[in-house]
Amino acid sequence: MGVAGSQPAQDLLADDSSLAANGIGIDRRELGTISRDNGGTRGVVQQEAVAPLSQADKMLAPAAVRQAVNRADTQRWTTTELNLWTRPDGKAKQVGVLDSGKKVLVTGRSLKGREEIVLDGEARWVTAGYLSAEKPFAIGGECTNGSSVSPGVSPNIVKVHEAVCANFPEITVYGTFRGDGEHAQGIAVDIMVSGDRGWQVAEFIREHYSELGVSYLIYSQQIWSVERSGEGWRGMEDRGSTTANHYDHVHVTTY
């Protein structure tokens, strides 16, 4: 009788809801259900839990992205072909590909193995570790001076032309096919350049002989070959003229 005559205990779930609403110890968003009295009819209202923002979501907030893009002032070069992503996590979508040797702005922000760059005013993400402070050497660099080599030459001759053209764009004349020896086979090219610039071209090719598939070089009556590379540049006999002695061009023979 004592129990039956006592006042009903306050609804504990309703009490929790009241505490949460006042910010005391419980976040209302974390409540699975709350009890509500509606005109004498007590019902249960389900509330969805709100997940906290991930680190990626915080970084991708519009204000944070704008600030990162506006502050980006450091340039880097891509050292390989890179996929472009919309964000750094598993929710990312690929939106393009960035070629090797391209110069981009970086924001300095990184997450989950990706770095943020600025491309055409937009924030994009690329795999970390493939951006360099130094412009990389690109064998297949872009030739913009309109020069070319004859169709049918070896792939290595094409690579030599592309590399020299990209790095020495003032050189526009390349001699390939003619009726004798290695030129007739399409594995030799004469790069028409002289003086100190000729030595710069010759040394550039020698430095990258492996990537370019070069067998030997001749310039200014000097020869360098892969087979005798330990001897460096070696003198040659006088062949009687400026052209025959290779003073007005760098001769390159490839494999």
From TrEMBL:
InterPro entries found in the cross-reference section: ARB_07466-like_C (IPR058593)
Residues of the ARB-07466-like C-terminal domain: 150-247
Pfam family, one: VldE
Domain of life of the source: Bacteria
Protein name: Mucin-2 protein
Species of origin: Nocardioides immobilis
